[in-house]
Amino acid sequence: MENLLLSHFYFGFQFLILSFFYHSLFKEKLQRKVIVVLLILCTSLLVIQYSLDWDLFFKFNLFEIFITSLPLIIYATFHLYNLLNEKKEFYYINIGLLIYLFGSTVVFLTANLLLSLQTYDSFDIIYSLNVYLYVVYQLFILYDVTTILKTNKKKSYE
Q1: Under a CB-based contact definition with an 8 Å cutoff, are residues 69 and 97 in contact?
Q2: pLDDT higher than 80, residue 62
Q3: How far is residue 53 CA from its own chain's centroid?
Q4: What band does 151 get if pLDDT is binned at 50, 70 and 90?
Q5: Kindly report the CA angle at 60 between 141 and 123, in degrees rounded to 5?
Q6: What DSSP designation does 28 have?
Q7: Measured distance CA(144)–CA(20) in Å, rounded
């Protein structure tokens, strides 16, 4: 796994960017406060963990995957709840994110189990599933962005 070091930065960056994204979407004070608390708590826990054990940068860290994915799943669920009574803003991006995060978290947990059992044949299948989930996530984003652009284009002509 040559890119294992980069994966830690990917999970952290994804967590930070999407936390800020959902913070900007939410209007409820409680939901915004939950994001701030989870952002500080999760980031602090990861900084402490990596400062205590630098070797984790070169290992598969399930705690990191879990602690950066679970809050994002919570934020996405909050957003779905908020959309019940509002305009469906970023609906497909949110659905794609939920599908990807649930799926990839299960994939990474399963991959770690397969690594410990040393069943490398199934390992490629598991990672291929993660790639497919990521492509589905990107397709949801593409659909939502094109819908937003078409709507904005129609508004500009009116």
Answers
A1: no
A2: yes
A3: 24
A4: confident
A5: 75
A6: -
A7: 19
DSSP characters over 61-129: -HHHHHHHHHHHHHHHHHHHHHTTSS--TTHHHHHHHHHHHHHHHHHHHHHHHHHHHT-HHHHHHHHHH
Instruction: Give the span between the Cα atoms of 112 and 1, in whole angstroms.
Output: 13
Q: State which H helix or E strand residue 145 sits in.
A: helix 120-157
Q: Which of 102, 107, 92 is nearest to 139 (CA)?
A: 92
Angle in degrees, CA 100, 105, 106, rounded to 5: 105
pTM over 0.85: yes
Angle between helices 91-117 and 120-157 (to 10 degrees): 170
Summarised one tens digit per residue, pLDDT across range 13-44 is 999 999 999 999 999 999 999 999 999 999 99
Q: What CA–CA distance (Å, rounded) separates 107 from 8?
A: 16
What the block records as the tokens of 100 is: 């990807």
d(CA 109, CA 62): 7
